[in-house]
Write the structure tokens for this entry.
Amino acid sequence: MTIHESIAAKVSAFAGVTEEDVLGWFETPPTPDKGDIALPCFKLAKALRKAPPMIAAELAKEFEGFGGIVKAEPAGGYLNFFLDRTGEAKKLVLKVLEEGDSYGSSDEGGMRNVCIDFSSINICKPFGIHHITTTVLGHSLSRIFRHLGYNPVRINHLGDWGTQFGKMLVAYKKWGDKERIENAASPTRELVDLYVKFHQEAEKDPSLDDEARAAFRSIELHDPENWELYQWFKELTIREAQRVYDLLGVEFDSYNGEAFYEDKMPAVIDELKAKGVTTVDNGMTIVDLSAYDMPPCLILKSNGGTIYPTRDITAAIYRKNTYDFYKNLYVVAYQQNLHFRQVFKTLELMGYDWAKDCVHVNFGMISMQDMTFSTRKGNAIYLEDVLMKAIEKTKAIMQEKSPDLADMDEVARQVGVGAVVWGPLYSSRIKDFTFSWEKALNFEGETAPYAQYTHARCCSVLRKAEGYNIVKADWSCLDNESTANLIKAMKALPAAIENAAEKYEPYLISRNVIEICSAFNKFYFENRIMDENEGVRSARLAVTDAARKVIKLGLYLVGIEAPERM
């Protein structure tokens, strides 16, 4: 039982309220001199029919001599608890050292499936910087949910269907060179050049658009020659994207994209009609959502063609039937808010009660150097370029600061990639984010390199110590403010993990990691870790070891590696 649970049990018995309610009332005092835990007694006024200050004073007496609490002090309508710092530090450190990478984990998920649709790159296009947020956010969520006992099903819903592929076919047949594309460092950039050329030529000759529509129709009909070319485009794209995924450490369980659902949509369209969910308006088949303050959800165009909602409705049904998901997450930018509201409402109108388990995990936009990201205009910024430039810049910094560093290339990769990943995961996902080289690669402040450097510092201290004797640790030396703050920050990680899963917000973990790093660096400078006294040295090394493990775990959960030397 944690100290919070012990306090809650006593308050419950005293006031006749539930322990669960009390656990939700606890606050953290603004400064250490106000205590370690605060209980607002306003919540008890109705049950006890007394003024909050009186309740706080009476409750304080109940905690005299209570295990783990040094003092319970009334402060207006609050009761502030001062904990046994030594006991709390020992308990937390031993827990972290014992649990290691499983610290903060749970079996709450019961191995239930959580489908996570993320990254979802487009065929025939390189990996753009604008795909970084969906990719790293989805990757982090998959790790967080796995840590809590769920089974994440990682889905890359490829953008591999539509008239644009007819344009690609026309452009390739008119101006493409297979050998040149195959042998290029980036085959998809060659394809993009062709795509851009198509639009330039189509402005002069609009008949090219008719050719493109006809070419895409031939793909729909599986014309052997064009289908083979289409599959080749897809293969080139996935193979090239894998280089980026390898750099990021991202993996997928499914690459089923839009094309996968083409032969599954007719049955769903029939179901929609049979259930009376659809109506026909100007030749289009729609779901009327005016009663829910939404425009209609388009199912079939007037020419009988399908559209995004049709595919997403079909995909959701397929995923439920295939994975029986507990949650079905779509990590997609906020511009698609209306689209997913329409899709989820349509699923609900079809009678699927699991529609409530479909969640749009939306996020803000990313910008860099005031550039927009339009492949059609040919001015996209490619993620692989950004990652390689980050690695290159990191290596230059390390050559200046740590010229003798072993495995410099590997460390530069870990730190450079981490710097890029960190940005979208350090603020609430809905906020727009502007990438800055100066900020991302800063080894001080609230950045990934700072957190990685702190981890490396812990490793360096432990290497120099060449071990410690936990049995001989003198825990009494940990009774000081800097250690207490570090213990408090490390203790907060499990709750941060749970909140991150509940709110789909990995930044809660990133922020906690920075709090731990900041607290450790203060602990490092204010306490002589390599003390001559073996008991003191062992206790402080144990704290350092625990900090190392917790920082590494926190970084892992947001998709960032933790170098041991920097």
User: Anything to note?
Assistant: The chain has 22 helices and twelve strands. The chain has a mean pLDDT of 93. The radius of gyration is 28 Å. The longest strand covers residues 69-75.
